[in-house]
Amino acid sequence: MTKVTAQLSVSVDGFYAGPQFAGDGNWMDSAESAAFFRVTRWATEAMAWRERQGFAGGEPDTNSDVIAETFEAAGAYVMGRRMADGGEVPWGAEPPFRAPVFVVTHRPRQTLPREGGTSFTYVTDGVASAVEQARAVAGGKNVAVAGGGSLVRQVLKAGLLDELELHVVPVVVGTGLRLFDADLDLADKEAIELTPTRVIHTPQVTHIRYAVRGHAPLVLDDRGSGGGPTVTRN
Fold first, then answer.
1. What CA–CA distance (Å, rounded) separates 151 from 157?
2. What is the pTM of this model?
3. Distances (CA, A) of 55 to 15, 58, 65, 91, 99
4. Which residues, in sequence order, are CB contacts of 133 under 8 Å at separation 6+?
5. Is 161 buried (19+), middle (13-18) or exposed (0-12) by CB count in 10 A?
6. What is the tens place of the pLDDT at every residue in 12-70?
């Protein structure tokens, strides 16, 4: 059964990158990239990630197994235009996805074919359309929302996400691009409930997988009285 999944590396205080780089100069020298490379270090040191990028070396450890599993489970991808544009040159002629990628954008562009089974299709009619197109070609595998964080929030906000995996890195970065932000448009007494389905701990990172249960009201508990949910008395 095809699931819509997302996975993202975050600091303990919930950031997936530093403050957004919006000026001239080299993104690699920015505060955004510094925090991003810190929270993704566990991945770039893993053998499965390095092999997929065409690099040598890496550790054949638990983190590598998690990455290999994620690649194997994905039959199609959805990503944001900023991520696609930023990765186009470094990914080269044979990007690591090896599956169709649907890019959510407001700027039309012809489909960009690449070697190794990857293609980039630019979708201008919204995130729901991109997810549906990805689902149609996933071949029963998962539709993986590759990011960035803003796109993950859009998919979650739209009620399209079935599974979320957070790779929580033991570092506090203080400021930057936060995964969960106010643009989820939750009501004052509303939340999105998650159920943990798997936790894998390593010294570098803790992998927490959640099933997304959806929107639910926030209800005050009984504060130990034993009488169930609190009832307001006049």
1. 10
2. 0.92
3. 27, 9, 17, 12, 20
4. 102, 121, 123
5. buried
6. 999 999 999 987 788 889 999 999 999 999 999 999 999 999 999 999 999 999 999 99
